[in-house]
Amino acid sequence: MNYLRPEQDAESQRIVAALQRLQFLHPHDSIRATVETASRQIGFCPEAARHALTWLGLDTEKPIGRLRRSELLQLARSIQRFWRQNAGHTTAPAASAPDLQS
Predict the structure, then answer these.
(1) pLDDT score of 89
(2) Pair 32, 59: CB distance under 8 Å
(3) Does any domain span residue 95?
(4) In terms of residue numbers, what domain contains 36?
(5) Rounded to an integer, what distance in angstroms lies between the CA atom of residue 21 and that of residue 8?
(6) DSSP state string for 4-37
(7) How far is CA 5 from each of CA 2, 48, 50, 73, 83, rounded to the nearest angstrom?
(8) 44: which DSSP letter?
């Protein structure tokens, strides 16, 4: 059973699709670099991605190719959740968001 609203599920599926595509095309890139690229492609907040990576306890320098599908799903859903939470609290434009490299 899916407890997400349809628009939330669609957003997380877009993030999963981007992460899977990047994982397939560039399996040796770090998780950090892949998430940064996906953030630029989709437009989700880099701060939300940073929170998701921290919350999940992922080693951001690990190659993205080492993640299983279940881990990609968890990452995408966490990014989507933190992105939606931050959307109401952020007034600055996304272009001025900090880089994920810290």
Answers:
(1) 52
(2) no
(3) no
(4) 6-86
(5) 20
(6) S-HHHHHHHHHHHHHHHHHHHH-TTSBHHHHHHH
(7) 8, 19, 23, 16, 15
(8) -
Q: How far is CA 37 from the centre of its chain?
A: 10
What's the whole-model pTM score?
A: 0.76
User: How many domains are contained in the chain?
Assistant: 1
Strand partners, 59: none
Report the CATH number that the domain containing residue 36 is assigned in CATH: 1.10.8
- Do the domain assignments include residue 30? yes
Burial 18-29 (b: 16+ CB within 10 A, else e): bbbebbeeeeeb
* Alpha-carbon dihedral sign for residues 88, 90, 92, 95: negative
Return averaged pLDDT per consecutive 10 residues of the chain, 102 residues in all.
59 93 97 96 94 96 96 96 78 47 53
- The answer to whether residue 1 is domain-embedded is no
For residue 71, the one-letter residue type is: E
- Partner residues linked to 63 by β-bridges: 30
Answer yes or no: is 29 within a domain: yes
pLDDT at 86: 80
